[in-house]
Structure formats: structure tokens, C-alpha cells
Amino acid sequence: MKNFVTLAAGLMVAASFMSSAASGQTVLKSSDTHPDGYPTVEGVKYFGELVKERTQGRYSVEVYHSAQLGEEKDTIEQVRSGVIELNRVSMAPFNGTVKESIVPALPYIFRSEEHMHKVMDGAVGDQIKEAFEPAGLVVLAFYDAGARSFYNKTKPINSVADMKGLKFRVIQSDIFVDMVAALGANATPMPYGEVYSGIETGVIDGAENNFPSYDTAKHAEVAKNYSLDEHTILPEVFVMNKAAFDKLKPEDQEIFKQAAKDSVAKQRELWAAKVAESRTNVEKLGAQITTPDKQGFIEAMAPVYEKHVKDDVLKKMVEDVKAVQ
């Protein structure tokens, strides 16, 4: 049934695209798993407004939020194949395709969100953007997704020892699986949309994510213990199908790039406000927020780095990230 619904949505989108194209306007489809109003959704909407304005209406963007076009794994394939033109997605699922995307996904690679901004806005970010092109994608922007932390329905986590034996949902990424294993817990990759029921039914004990996701997906209703270990500050990536981008006139390519850059500032502003709002919301729901000593978590990550930072390119990138002040 789910695949049928997704296919039906895709056919509706195609029909909309054809009718719009007939009117002289090219409508680009963009996917997001998060609900309407979420900062990443609003960031892409703002990008679309700027593109429409700056191309005098020749291009517009339709944002399909709430996983209307499928979960992230599905929409990544859709944008790579050109079924949809745009996609906002976590960077972690690209770790097996674009090796440079491994670096920002490493646990504790960033000292703070400000550090992450400086890295992704600089030479390392440019290097990662270039690495996406052979995969058929053009990176338009890196969006904020805050710090990810563990939460569960069983007990507060104040140390690595408290992680032992717990089952956590993670993004479909080997790094995340290995990170959880290094902490003595069990990782269960599953789609974002299945986390609530997974916790509720006991398939998993909890998950790991930022405050806005913990809030808007209602996970705080079923997992009351939130531990601010802040293991990853993983940026989101806003990508465009490369063939679609290459078809744009050079002046339109510049418009798209600048609109994306302008949308980053907007998205970061919305993100900061949403984090504060979501923390208040989950505390009202009775979430217990603890702050463990991170040093034990950091020290446990040595085997993760050893396994995933294998070649000289990645080793150099890690050093470049650490050098950014």
C-alpha cells in the first residue's frame, strides 16, 4: 500500500509538472521527510521563492514535505535518477557513495555548531560538494540539523556504561551502526517514519536525533529520557540532480547557487529558534534531559575513526577540520 501511495503521489507530481511546463514555467520537485513548517522545509521553500523571483517566474519549486514522495533512501534514488530534481536529506546515507561525506558524519568531529558552520562554509565544504558530482548530484547548500543525542524509554544515560544492551534506531549508515556498537549498545537502522511505533512496541528502546526531530515526530511521548551527549553535529545536504542543473543556462545556474546560499542564512535562523521551542515543548511533555560526561563517549570512538578514516584523503580532511578555528 505504501509503495502504491508513493507511486500515486509521483504520478500526481508528474501531471502537475507537465501542466505547469505547458504554461511556460518549469516546476521543480523537492522532497523532505520532515513536516511542513520544519526549518529545512522552510529553507527550501525560501530557496524556491528566491529562484522564482530572480528568474521572473520561469522556475518554481514545489516542496513535498512529510515524506510524501518516500523516505530518504527512496528519494535519494529518485533525485539521482532524475525522477525528482531536488532533495533535502541527511548526509549520512551518502557515506557509502560519496566517501568525503564520511568526515562530517564522524562522531565528535565538530566542537560546536559554530565550528561546523566554519568548516562547511569553507574549503572542506567545497571539497565535499565537488565529491557529490560523480554521483550525479550538485550540492546547493548545507543546512543545520543541530546536535544529535540519544534518547530512550528505559533509563537516563549519564555515562557510556548506561548504554550497554540498549537498542537504538540509527540512520542507515555504517558509521552510526559502528558508533552505537562502540558504546556497547545495539543499532537498528530503520526509516525515520517507523521510529515512534518501534519505540512504542519495544522493537527498539530509543533513537538518536536533535531536539526538533524528537519534538515534531512525537518521540518524546514514548521515550522520556534525553541525554545531551551531542555525538554528531551532522549537517543536512540540499542536492539537485546534476543533469537537471547542467541543463540550466549559466546565468540561471548562478541564480540557483546564490538563492541556495541565501537560504542557508534563513534556515540557520529558523533552526536556532526551533531548537529553543522544541526543547521547551519536550520538557513540558515530561522529558528528562541529562548531560553526561562526554569524555568517555569521545574516547570510545577510536575504533570508529580507525575503521572509517582509512585513506590519506579522509585523514587529511579530518586534520583540516580540526585545524579550523
TrEMBL record:
Pfam families referenced in this protein's UniProt entry, alphabetically: DctP
Keyword Signal annotated: yes
Signal sequence bounds: 1-21
Keyword Signal set for record: yes
UniProt protein name: TRAP transporter substrate-binding protein
InterPro entries: DctP_fam, TRAP_DctP, TRAP_DctP_sf
This protein's UniProt keywords: Signal
